[in-house]
Specification:
single chain, about 325 residues, alpha/beta, Rossmann fold, 8-stranded mixed beta sheet, 4-stranded antiparallel beta sheet, about 40% helix, binds 2-acetamido-2-deoxy-beta-D-glucopyranose, folate gamma-glutamyl hydrolase, secreted, Class_I_gatase-like, signal
């Protein structure tokens, strides 16, 4: 009985989150967290911060503008930017994520602001890709070091069809009846190798058993098996918050051209991977944060910076926003 009541309360809460908000902000701005780079990757051999340009295009392609959030900004500045943007995106990357590093600590600070905002009825979506997906799990499990939680997988540079958890996807925000996803997209994801995986670490259903706080927080929407047949979780959404994570890289098929990688640029792949951008940007239309002045907004936009292309492999380039000061 107590359990039934709990379920009803939970369901009511989810309904509030899902239906009490409408997508009425037609000028959404999304904050994208920068990260430190090593001199090795920088064109001028200097230590700086960057965002891979594909993440900026990923938010722009569905009708949002982007603002970079410096990973090393002071707390007051992070708060100012948080109050100006309608959602946050945590990118992929190669950081060692633990307490005491600026990326982790400030990433956690922003994540906590998002939880707090949502709890007060200020609908604030956040999205994590790959490293971002992993980081959200570390936060949800209330850990301070990804090395405690992450498991190893053999899933670097490989495209997979998704194995949907059908019961969960049907009642999810991401793929449920109100999501706008089409049967064709779901069908293509389920039957064709369209999701681009670039990870050595990840989380499994076993990880969720070990960390009940993560299990209570997230709903698993899809899984995959790595080259050794070991299952990892590939898409999650938080049960009671507009927080979303994908272990793979939807921005890769859309915008990355490394010809030595197993990227699928087919029409179905572009259509399907675009869906994640469209879904997330629409979630951000439900938030009404605003910069205090138009001048503040203009100064924050990524349009003030120029992307730089650097050689990746023979003939192929990858484009970055470097030196985001
Ligand atoms: C986080 O890390 C710093 C140093 O890196 C340490 O002093 C601090 O105690 C840590 N905090 C927790 C809660 O473990
Ligand atoms: C890419 O996706 C298409 C479907 O759109 C599929 O037919 C094809 O096999 C995939 N190609 C590769 C190399 O995985």
């Amino acid at each position: 009985m107590a359990f039934r009541a709990g379920v009803v309360v939970l369901f009511a809460l989810v309904c509030i989150l899902t239906f009490a908000t409408s997508a009425n902000n037609n000028r959404p701005i999304i904050g994208v967290l920068t990260q430190p780079t090593s001199v090795k990757y920088h064109p001028n051999n200097i230590e700086q911060q960057y965002i891979t340009a594909s993440y900026i295009k990923f938010v722009e392609m569905s009708g949002a503008r982007a603002v970079h959030i410096p990973f090393d900004a002071p707390k007051e500045e992070l708060k100012r930017l948080f109050n100006g943007v309608n959602g946050l995106l945590y990118t992929g990357g190669m950081l060692d994520m633990k307490n005491g590093t600026q990326y982790f600590d400030n990433g956690l600070y922003l994540y906590s602001l998002a939880l707090e905002a949502n709890a007060k009825g200020d609908y604030f979506p956040i999205w994590g890709t790959c490293q971002g997906f992993q980081l959200f799990h570390v936060f949800a499990a209330e850990l301070l070091d990804e090395n405690i939680m992450m498991e190893h997988f053999d899933s670097w540079d490989i495209s997979y069809p998704l194995v949907f958890d059908v019961a969960n996807t049907k009642r999810s925000r991401m793929f449920g009846p109100d999501s706008g996803v089409t049967d064709a997209i779901l069908h293509d994801f389920a039957t064709r190798p369209l999701t681009m995986n670039f990870h050595h670490l990840g989380v499994s259903r076993e990880t969720y058993k070990k960390y009940p706080a993560a299990d209570a927080f997230f709903r698993i929407l899809s899984t995959n098996k790595d080259r050794q047949g070991k299952e990892f979780i590939s898409i999650v959404e938080a049960k009671n918050y507009p927080i979303y994570g994908v272990q793979f890289h939807p921005e890769w098929p859309l915008f990355e051209w490394d010809s030595s990688s197993d990227v699928n640029h087919s029409q179905e792949s572009i259509r399907a991977n675009s869906y994640f951008s469209s879904f997330f940007v629409n979630e951000c239309r439900k938030n009404n944060h605003k910069f205090r002045t138009i001048k503040e907004e203009r100064e924050a936009l990524i349009y003030n910076y120029s992307p730089v292309s650097t050689e990746l492999t023979a003939g192929d380039v990858q484009t970055y926003y470097w030196d985001l000061l």
